[in-house]
């Protein structure tokens, strides 16, 4: 920290002069305590199935409720967690938390399935599939309760290593989606080999597709590509009715975005779902992997 002498001669802490790297250092130290201090929280954003207008699944999105800095979004601490290896602990916490939440929702009559985001570093951890299996067993959980979202760039960091971990996860029965699809330079050769069940088109293509014909073409082509490869296709970042209508016309399978709901805390999501125009439907059998 930068200590400045003020007129009375005492050291004064000046946040405006705190350099970015110093901020990062202190953030990292605090992050290590965040789990113990119960400062991490999962928010949940619904996904609507466009064929049935029902909701079966929500995505878990992490927030750090910092006692002094307020709500810190994941983009501001997940990268640190990744570069220090602390992400493994966070990912385990996220999975355990999601499974607990699913059990609570089940007792409330809304057994939603939950997708969790997995980072590049997780994919290089050969222990991940085993840890996963153990967590599922501890929580007496079915693999239908959880699915994984993995960014395209995470997979392409080390495609061969990622492929091994992904194959094992899939053998354990987990469904998997390629997140932020279209932004990560994945080759079609890998796409063909990856054991995924869904493509999630990045919101950068979705938010502008009404005004930008190039984006609309990319979205349409990605939906067709996914379907031709036997995958479900979901669009993220849907913010208005016009985008919704365009995606329905293009045959997109499901959507997610502020137009339906922002990510919400678990109890808020329940209240929202009970009053929402969209009906809850338990994840149907057809979503499940067959082998
Ligand atoms: P993502 O998985 O691609 O999640 C989508 C992001 O877009 C979320 O931001 C979400 O709140 C936001 N979003 C949803 N609908 C809309 C919309 O209609 N318009 C706009 N403009 N934005 C929308 P968030 O929650 O800040 O998360 C950012 C990223 O952080 C996520 O991107 C994901 O990559 C990462 N992340 C979040 N939670 C976790 C986690 O538990 N573990 C890991 N490893 N990464 C996480
Ligand atoms: Mg995601
Ligand atoms: Mg995404
Ligand atoms: Mg993203």
Provide a quick synopsis of the model.
The chain has 291 residues and is an alpha/beta fold.
Distance between the termini: 55 Å
As a whole number of angstroms, the C-alpha radius of gyration is: 21 Å
Q: Structural class, from secondary structure content?
A: alpha/beta
Mean pLDDT: 89
Work out the strand percent. 15-25%
Number of helices, counting only DSSP H or I runs of 4 residues or more: 12
Q: How much helix is in the residues?
A: 40-55%
Bound molecules: ligand C2E, magnesium ion
Total strands: the figure is 13
List descriptors.
291 residues; alpha/beta; eight-stranded mixed barrel; two-stranded antiparallel ribbon; 13 strands; 22% strand; binds ligand C2E; binds magnesium ion; EAL domain-containing protein
Structural write-up:
The protein is of the alpha/beta class. The chain contains twelve helices and 13 strands. An eight-stranded mixed β-barrel has the order 3-4-6-7-8-9-10-11. Helix 8 links the parallel strand 8 and strand 9. The radius of gyration is 21 Å and the shape is globular. The chain starts with a strand and ends in an 11-residue tail after the last strand. The chain binds ligand C2E and magnesium ion (MG) (3 copies). One magnesium ion binds next to strand 8.
Mind sketching the topology for me?
Elements: E1 3-5, E2 11-13, H1 20-34, E3 40-49, E4 54-66, E5 70-72, H2 78-84, H3 87-107, E6 113-118, H4 120-123, H5 128-138, E7 146-151, H6 152-157, H7 159-171, E8 175-181, H8 188-193, E9 198-201, H9 203-206, H10 213-228, E10 232-235, H11 241-249, E11 254-255, E12 264-265, H12 266-275, E13 279-280
Parallel strand pairs: 4-6, 4-13, 6-7, 7-8, 8-9, 9-10, 10-11
Antiparallel strand pairs: 1-2, 3-4, 3-11, 3-12, 4-5
The chain binds ligand C2E and magnesium ion (MG) (3 copies).
């Amino acid at each position: 920290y930068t200590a400045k002498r003020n007129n009375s001669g005492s050291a004064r802490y000046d946040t405006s002069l705190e350099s970015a790297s110093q901020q990062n250092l202190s953030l990292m130290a605090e992050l290590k305590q965040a789990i113990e201090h119960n400062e991490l929280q999962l928010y949940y954003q619904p996904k609507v199935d466009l064929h049935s207008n029902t909701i079966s699944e929500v995505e878990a999105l992490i927030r750090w409720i910092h006692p002094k800095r307020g709500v810190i979004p994941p983009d501001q601490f997940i990268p640190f967690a990744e570069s220090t290896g602390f992400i493994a602990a966070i990912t385990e916490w996220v999975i355990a938390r999601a499974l607990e939440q699913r059990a609570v929702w089940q007792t409330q009559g809304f057994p939603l399935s939950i997708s969790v985001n997995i980072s590049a570093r997780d994919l290089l951890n050969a222990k991940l599939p085993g840890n996963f299996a153990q967590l599922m067993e501890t929580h007496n959980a079915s693999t239908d309760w959880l699915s994984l979202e993995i960014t395209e760039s995470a997979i392409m960091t080390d495609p061969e290593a990622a492929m091994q971990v992904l194959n094992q996860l899939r053998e354990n029965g987990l469904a998997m989606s390629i997140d932020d699809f279209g932004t990560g330079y994945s080759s079609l050769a890998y796409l063909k080999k990856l054991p995924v069940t869904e493509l999630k088109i990045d919101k950068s293509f979705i938010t502008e597709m009404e005004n930008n014909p190039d984006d609309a073409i990319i979205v349409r082509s990605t939906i067709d590509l996914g379907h031709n490869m036997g995958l479900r296709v979901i669009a993220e970042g849907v913010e208005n009715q016009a985008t919704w209508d365009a995606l329905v016309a293009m045959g997109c399978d499901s959507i997610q975005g502020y137009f339906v709901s922002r990510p919400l805390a678990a109890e808020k999501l329940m209240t929202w779902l009970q009053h929402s125009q969209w009906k809850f439907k338990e994840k149907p059998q057809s979503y499940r992997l067959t082998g």
